[in-house]
Amino acid sequence: MTEFFASLYEFFGLLPFYSKDFADHLRGWAADCSGYTGTIWYNIIAITMTGVTALGYALMYHIIDSPKWNKKQHWWIVALVIIALNWFINARGFLQNAKIGALTVCPYFNIQADEQSPIQRSHFIAKTRAALYYYKDNITGNNSVNALYYIGDDYIGEAYPNDPGDRGQKNKAHFIELASALAIIDFLEIPDERLQCVNGKAQSPIYKQFAVKNDVQEITFADLYDGTKDKIERRLSQLTFLYRYVTENLKQAIGQQAWCQDKPTIDQTFLNTPFYRTYLSDFLKAYKEWLTELSENRHAFSPFNLDSNLETLIKGRSVQGGIFEGRVDYNRFDDYLNRTSRGQQYPSAEQKFIKLFFDATNNLLTERFGFQQKQQQ
Fold it and tell me: Where does the pLDDT of residue 347 fall: very low under 50, low under 70, confident under 90, or very high at 90 and above?
């Protein structure tokens, strides 16, 4: 039923009406990304609107069948009322009292001086102050948002070319952007009872700012507060181990390792699929470029030794276990993949690949690198 209602709303495609992520939320995707365990809004909205429309048709039939109310204008009045009710049900309750979070990012990069450009770094602070005063009067001052996040970096780093927008400003990835994205996760973790709105006004607005534990030029996981570290260290480490394995050992493992031969198989054909050639390979290549740019910027975020062996891949983490545990290399990595794959069933090769590496790297980090056991999400 959910997919049927979803197909009606998405008949002309999602964009520009709303994003795929929002469509997943309407299907019942939970805020913590644990699965389709949330409220299925598509069903609720569609059933309610169907009921209102059916009631409207019944009323129309009564008008048509009635000598007193069978004029054309009467029919149009009822039709407009039905449209208004449907809009009210579909939009008013969601929009007026929607839970809203916002992020204010203060200037965090430097640009070259150019007298011909309308953008000057010397204006950044004054314009930032003016913007914050405006937000104080028109956003925070009238309780327009439930949560407002502040972040910035006053370190004056490498000066980028001054481009007002016509040629395309291209800056390296910055840690501020990563930390800013964490505001989304933090907002989703706030209990609903703390994000209440009445008549479109937030009742108890929340204000937060981001900070690191150690103010150093090159930030690693150890320099982050526990809350931030817990959110990103394990998952980024898993992804980095996946990147290293795919780029350095996957082709050698195919046809040799048991995890590849278990059904569904991961073979040479898999390496020619759009999933591997486009989605996975291109994504991991972009991920490596992103990590490199983060490490080259200032403040830098450099949590990995990308060119080291697997045992020293994560800065600040060392391999645990006695001499009988063996080294952490690609042979050991394959052992974890083989052990994790044994006896498991997967719907497809693509799903097997992602789920298997997620579980195997999770076990590897817990058992050999001292990560705390954590329930998988």
Answer: very high
At 287 the three-state DSSP class reads: helix
Q: Of 37, 80, 43, whose CA–CA distance to 59 is shortest?
A: 80
Give Cα separations from 12 to 7, 8, 9, 39 (angstroms).
Answer: 9, 9, 8, 24
CA distance 291 to 289: 5
- Report in angstroms the alpha-carbon separations of 171 from 104, 125, 141, 161, 167: 19, 20, 34, 9, 13
pLDDT tens by residue, 139-155:
888 899 999 999 999 88
pTM for the complete prediction? 0.75
Distances 338 to 171, 242, 320, 327 between C-alpha atoms, Å? 42, 15, 21, 17
Q: Computed over its alpha carbons, how large is the radius of gyration of the chain?
A: 27
SS3 content of the chain, % helix, strand, coil (to 5): 55, 5, 40
Give the residue carrying structure tokens 């795929």.
Answer: 20
Q: What 3-state class would DSSP assign to 159?
A: strand
What are residue 126's phi and psi, to 5 degrees?
Answer: -60, -45
How many angstroms separate the most distant Cα atoms in the chain? 95
Q: What pLDDT is stored for residue 312 in this prediction?
A: 96
Question: Quick count: other Cβ atoms within 10 Å of Cβ 246?
Answer: 17
